[in-house]
Design a protein that fits this description.
By secondary structure, the protein is mostly beta strands.
C-alpha cells in the first residue's frame, strides 16, 4: 500500500498541477478487493464541460476497466481500460459481447486526461479524468 501511495504522489509531482483532487468525494466498495472513487468537477462557466474523475484500486493483478453504456448488456458503450503491462489507459468501443467486438477507439477520440496505471505486489491502481 505504501508503494502505491508513493508511486501515485511521484506521478503527481512529475506531472505538475492536476484537474482532479487527491481525494475524491465518493467511494464505493465494488467487491471485497475493488474500490471505486469518483468525483464530478463542475464546469466553471457555460463554455466549459464537467469533468469526471475516477480512481480504482484493486488488490489483484491485471487490467482494470470502467465502462458506461446506453443498455444493460453494455453493447454500444465506451470502456476505459488500463493495462499495467504496457502502461496504457485507453478508450474502447464495446461493439458486442465478445472480446473480438471490443475495439480501441481512434487516436482522435483518445481524450482522457491525467491517465495513470500502476501495479505491484499489492495490486493495481487506475486513475483518469474525462469529459
Amino acid at each position: 500500500t505504501i508503494s502505491f501511495i508513493l508511486s501515485f504522489f511521484l506521478h503527481r509531482l512529475v506531472c505538475g498541477q492536476t484537474i482532479c483532487p487527491d481525494v475524491l468525494t465518493t467511494t464505493e466498495g465494488i467487491t471485497s478487493s475493488l474500490v471505486l472513487s469518483y468525483q464530478i468537477i463542475s464546469a466553471a462557466s457555460a463554455d466549459e464541460r464537467d469533468i469526471l474523475c475516477i480512481h480504482m484500486a484493486s488488490d489483484s493483478d491485471g487490467f482494470l476497466g470502467f465502462a458506461v453504456a446506453p443498455t444493460i448488456d453494455m453493447v454500444g458503450g465506451e470502456a476505459i481500460i488500463g493495462i499495467p503491462d504496457d502502461n496504457s489507459v485507453r478508450k474502447y468501443f464495446l461493439g458486442g459481447k465478445s472480446a473480438g467486438a471490443v475495439e480501441m477507439k481512434p487516436d482522435e477520440d483518445q481524450t482522457l486526461m491525467e491517465t495513470f496505471i500502476t501495479q505491484d505486489e499489492n495490486g493495481t491502481i487506475l486513475r483518469f479524468a474525462k469529459y
